[in-house]
Amino acid sequence: MLYVKHSTIKRVMIDPPIGVICDMRRIFNALIRRLARFGWHDIASAPSDCVIELAVDDRHPLGFPCIRHADGWLDATTMRPIAVSATHWRYWRPDVLPVCCC
Fold this sequence. Notes:
By secondary structure, the protein is an alpha+beta fold. Helix content is 20%, strand content 27%. It has one helix at 18-37; strands at 41-42, 51-56, 60-69, 72-75, 81-82, 88-91. The protein has a six-stranded antiparallel β-sheet, with no helix packed on it.
């Protein structure tokens, strides 16, 4: 914290350039869109052939990744069909993210 004994420093407000404001707005909107992806969505909007997490009975997650296929749902790890009546979905977030050693 800076303490000034006398009022020798003037506070000057400088408006940022228009380009900076546009860049900040674009970054903020992209961040909001990305955060919205992690929430639960209605099952009718679930994507096909994409690894997602399903929820049943008012957003209780199954806990394993699934894939929507033409005939129904598949377990993404075993690729076997599962019988589930899901109500919501969200993008699968693994517990451990893949890491590259190179």
